[in-house]
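Re: weekly structure request thread

Next one in the queue (428 aa):
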Amino acid sequence: MDTAIDPVGLHHYLSFHSVVPAPRTILAGVQKLPPATVRTVYPDGRHEDWDYWRAEFSRGGAGTGLDAADWPGAVLDSVRLAVQRRMVADVPVGVLLSGGIDSSLVVALLAESGHQQLRTFSVGFEAAGGESGDEFVYSDLVAAHFGTDHQKIMVESDRLLPAVDAAIGAMSEPMVSHDCVAFYLLSEEVSRSVTVVQSGQGADEVFAGYDWYPPLATVPRGGAAAAYAEVFVDRPHAGLADLLEPEWLASGDIFKRDHSRAFIDAHFGAPGADTALDAALRLDTSVMLVDDPVKRVDNMTMAWGLEARVPFLDHELVELAAACPPELKLAAGGKGVLKAASRGVVPDQIIDRPKGYFPVPAIRHLSGSMLDRVRDAVTDPVAKDRGLFRPDWLQRMLTDPNTERTTLGSNALWQVALLEMWLQDRGI
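Done, posted below.
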């Protein structure tokens, strides 16, 4: 099998939020099916692909006849049904409770339906770089409010470094997000108690909860792709010359083309998706969501035999959300229609809190043994022989590892080191 680095896959990895969209992967000899695709292979080697599902991201369809006042109730009913569908099991089902609105709503709806002593789980890490490593104040509030059997898992620093290598070993593809390690360690602990959990994954993409969506609200449909690239891609195309060795930039003139921008343009240029925000949500829901958050949760939970179910990705709920007018999703700082649906079901402190995330400060702010691990990876003889990244850029990053960030705030050195660690773990 050809395990050489695919130059276009590398371009996507360094540009498109560390995601390599199907059919490519980071390896030239490996391809993957796009989401929602069935491939039929015939004896003579021919194959045909069939796309079996897609959301339209236009008005009408699942949202026909709903006005602004109707939408919160319709969304709540759809989430309620999605949660109940994912409780069907012959074993107890727990919930990964971050303390954000998404997982809190799952807990609230399960409590509403009469589930007693629901098992909930939260994870936290030691602070680093002045950044808190847990959101227990919110998950504690939800657990107390609904009377769950709650377990807080505090990860000591000495457990973090071994978990990084273990999490990389569980990755089907390189996954930069630091919360991979959080989900890996959380899954290890949760698997001692239950084997099935529900998670709030996907709500930010489906209901427009990220901060790169509001700038698209007033962008004309024709300018949507450029506006999306401005707020989403990791670095400008010309910026790749700063970190890649010249031979990669000159490789068959491949890097003279902005492949990630061409990919974005093609998706935004497809029929449907009425507004700029609709087009962005269609791309994020059908590509980025699948190849980043969903894949990372699936890989990390299944590493411990834990099945994670994601009610916010129920296909009927996604179809309903796709039909929802963009202004209702962008209201209240993002996820407005979901917040309105949750009002009176989830405590107001959770709905009105600042947006959180799954923090692992020791990876966002590299120092000590974690920085040593990164240095070992990028200076390993294998990495030098591979020759992907400029030594002067690497030295600059190792000297000042936490200043340079991607467009969305990820640690630029970690992005490069994670790729090297994944390749070295596979013996590539």
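Strands lie at 37-41, 47-51, 93-96, 119-125, 149-155, 196-198, 307-309. The longest helix spans residues 276-302.
Next request, please.
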